[in-house]
Amino acid sequence: MSKKAPNYISTTNACKLCTPLGACLAFKGIEGAVPYLHGSQGCATYMRRYIISHYNEPIDIASSSLSEKNAIYGGGPNLKLGLVNVTQKYQPKLIGIATTCLTETIGDDVGRYLNEFMRETEGTMPIMVRVSTPSYNGTHMEGFHAAVTSVVDQLAEGGETMAGNINLLPGFISPADKRYLSEILNDFKLDSTILPDLSDTMDGPAGTSYKEIQPGGTPIASITSMGRATATIEFGRTIGEKSGGAVLANKYGVKRIVLGTPIGIAETDAFFAALSSLSGNPVPQKHAMERGRLLDSYIDCHKYVFGKKAIIYGEEDQVVGLTAFLAEIGIVPVLCASGGKSGKLAAAIRDVTGDILAEQPQVFEGMDFFDISEMAEGLAPDLLVGHSKGYPLARKMIIPLIRVGFPIHDRMGGQRILHLGYRGAQALFDQVVNAILAKKQDDSSVGYSYM
Amino acid sequence: MEGMLADRQDQVHRTGEQPFTLVCNKDSLAGAVSQRACVFCGSRVVLYPIADALHLVHGPIGCAVYTWDIRGSLSSGSELFRLSFSTDLQEIDVIFGGEEKLYRALIELIDRHSPKAAFIYSTCIVGIIGDDLEAVCRRVEAEKGIPVIPVMSEGFKGNKRAGYTAACNAMARLIGTGDTAGISPYSINILGDFNLAGEIWIIRKYFERMGVEVVANITGDGRVDDLKRAHGAALNVVQCSGSTMDLAKIMEEKYNIPSIRVSYFGVDDMAQSLYDVANHFGDKEMLEKTKKIVQEELTRIMPQLQIYKKALAGKKAAIYVGGSFKAFSLVKAFRLIDMQVVMVGSQTGTEQEYRELAEITDPGTIIVDDTNPLELSSFLEEKEVDILVGGVKERPIAYKLGVAFCDHNHERKEALAGFEGMLNFAREVYSSVMSPVWRIKK
């Protein structure tokens, strides 16, 4: 088996998105915020279309709509005009400004523009947070984390520590995951700030009027108080050292706890243990029961999944969590691939599977779907686990695709997929088992009526 | 409209309330949240359906990944066009230039896929760092012996219309390089149909039944070799005038090929399109065949259409589409099922088109250029609209307001062109407007 990463110059069917998209999503999870792209008009529109196709929710992303003239003489005037117009039309509490490859390359100094602008407008404008997201550097996840870091860095304040209050920076999770995390923290009797929070802004109820800005999101007052929390939990074994949690630790001495994205029992146990320790409360009975039922189902179905081979792809931290989960139920991860390039993926996967797997899967960063497909041919996987862009490969190989993460463009309800915790593992587990059973049933010449 | 940005007010007109004035074809206003994309998008959507060409996006990953398999264009053969190719420029390429990476990526992809031609799309950043696309394309073309054509589609160099022009200029370099021997004097190119949900196949069948040879599909289910000999056709039949009219003009100047504007949406315009082509050739037998086709098709669909008409009569529709030419046909199509259009707008319409829309629409109809979610939602509320026709970005606006929706954009999976397309269109409208979900109390 080849252990060498494919090394092509060209990219075909990328397994990543660009940095400003991640930043826009992070900003969208803040109360009263409008994401704003300093760039040409197309970026905002493309990202909106891409995001809408997943959530089936409106997302208004404003743009400086730079033209050729602005590209030559600088985008400052358009930036200011755009901010004035957004403020007038949306009356936001916060505008999250992300740059694009265009404005980074022409050398627009957004920080200077904004300082000038704040002086000129003398406190009449909403809060403005800026983040540098050149799309030639990193993936949407770097953009997402950079936006979270910027928000924390620019808004959080210090002061007297609030006992029993923690920060949770979960990364890019589904609205369903966020709602469940809130429930868990409540059950542990912890006050918390979860940043960002897309659970209402990108999964809202049917309405009777069109809201300028969808209600929900992390309250700005809570973000301001993040410097006074007792600890910050961050999900993601591959996140960098410039994270929001690191900022809070460095500036205000808030204890930083980095955990793996809690997918599967082992990673979730670690999360619950941390919550127990921070709250001083044992794991609530409700969650202990959910864990028990989950384990019961693992046992009931272990034979059907044992030894099945899976390819896992997508965002790095999600891949790590999914791999941990699949390994603990007896599935053999044969390839773990991401378009991201943290340099930490292989080590993170070894950390979560080392005591289960006799042999480590092939783990590659910087992969696209051409690479994944090429490798898949020699690996004979039984299933794919990842977002909907793996569908062509699943179709070609005639194997099930377990749809997780973002984007889900060919099915409904991407925002309601639960991945995290015992409950998320239960949902994923049932899906995985049933996909394998369905495949066996469909392929069978008799079509069993019982398992 | 209350609360509308001052700089946007001259881009809205209400039919009959004052003499026609409407400002359009200008850059989108910063901060207004336009529904438009960019120059690159314009080029990409026009050239995308050329199925056996390699479409390589030279830029950072976003531009390519957001346009991966983006259209519902179908191919009768090659599926190469559905792959998303990019040079995925990195910081180091931005600093030192991306030409070498582009060259190596091109060679790699051409060796891998053996395409009939390659289109290389320029993006914002390439326009800034100044990569010489022409030079790289010439070099690869010489080495590989296939046409390698740069598409000058830097995102910031105008709006979507500029992208259409760039796409037309790129196609013009292919046309005229093929052998035109054996092409019938009764021959056409179909311009401006993108074979969404197989629409161009429906249209081609009509022309075949009339005895007209289709030389090239431009661009739905398009092929490089057909494009190369497109200058051998006797007539260019142009739909969606915004996107391919420039190419028709180039071909008229260069090869003296006349063109006519048509629309395949709605029965009136569909029938008129076939008659216009028959009349152009002035062949009696062809005209008889055309009459027969129209009669047969109408006989087939009209009884079924009546069912929808009965249910939908009196309902109100709003239209927001990419190019305003399509809006004309939609206004007529709604009339055919007794529905009233109360708002119509587009991303890239021309003043002439909007003026004509003002002439054919009922008094009080809102006509709007380059609108945005907040304006659109206020129009839908003000006019108490029953259904919005638009694309993916407009869909959640309608749904959040409890308004039905019909996808008439390039991702649609239902064929809406041709006579049977009218029936599908009515069914689409019917299946959203008549759904019981709107009755459930919010």
Distance between the termini of chain B: 27 Å
- Terminus-to-terminus distance of chain A: 34 Å
What's the CATH first level of the largest domain in chain A? Alpha Beta
Give me the Rg of chain B, rounded.
22 Å
Average of the residue pLDDT scores of chain A: 96
Strand tally of chain A: 14
Strand content range of chain B: 15-25%
Q: What is the number of independent domains of chain A? A: 3
CATH architecture grouping of the largest domain in chain B: 3-Layer(aba) Sandwich
What's the average pLDDT of chain B?
Answer: 95
Q: What is the CATH homology-level superfamily of the largest domain in chain B?
A: Nitrogenase molybdenum iron protein domain
Structure annotation, total helices of chain A: 17
- Oligomer designation: heterodimer
Strand content of chain A: 5-15%
Structural class of chain A: alpha/beta
CATH superfamily of the largest domain in chain A: Nitrogenase molybdenum iron protein domain
Total helical elements of chain B: 17
Principal-axes shape call of chain A: globular
Which strand order do you get reading across the main beta sheet of chain B? 1-12-11-10-13-14
Biggest β-sheet description of chain B = 6 strands, mixed
And the CATH topology of the largest domain in chain A? Rossmann fold
Q: What can you see in these coordinates?
A:
The complex is a heterodimer of chains A (451) and B (442). Chain A is an alpha/beta fold and 451 residues long. Chain A has three domains: 136 residues, Rossmann fold, CATH 3.40.50.1980; 115 residues, Nitrogenase molybdenum iron protein domain (Rossmann fold), CATH 3.40.50.1980; 152 residues, Rossmann fold, CATH 3.40.50. Helix content of chain A is 45%, strand content 14%. In chain A, helix 1 crosses helix 7 and helix 12 packs parallel to helix 17. The radius of gyration of chain A is 22 Å and the shape is globular. Chain A starts with 10 loop residues before the first strand and ends in an 8-residue tail after the last helix. Chain B is an alpha/beta fold. Chain B has three domains: 136 residues, Rossmann fold (3-Layer(aba) Sandwich); 105 residues, 3-Layer(aba) Sandwich (Rossmann fold); 99 residues, Nitrogenase molybdenum iron protein domain (Rossmann fold). In chain B, the strands form three sheets. Chain B has a six-stranded mixed sheet with strand order 1-12-11-10-13-14. Chain B has a four-stranded parallel sheet with strand order 3-2-4-5, with helices on both faces. In chain B, strand 11, helix 14 and strand 12 form a beta-alpha-beta unit. In chain B, helix 4 packs parallel to helix 6. Chain B starts with 11 loop residues before the first strand and ends in a 9-residue tail after the last helix.
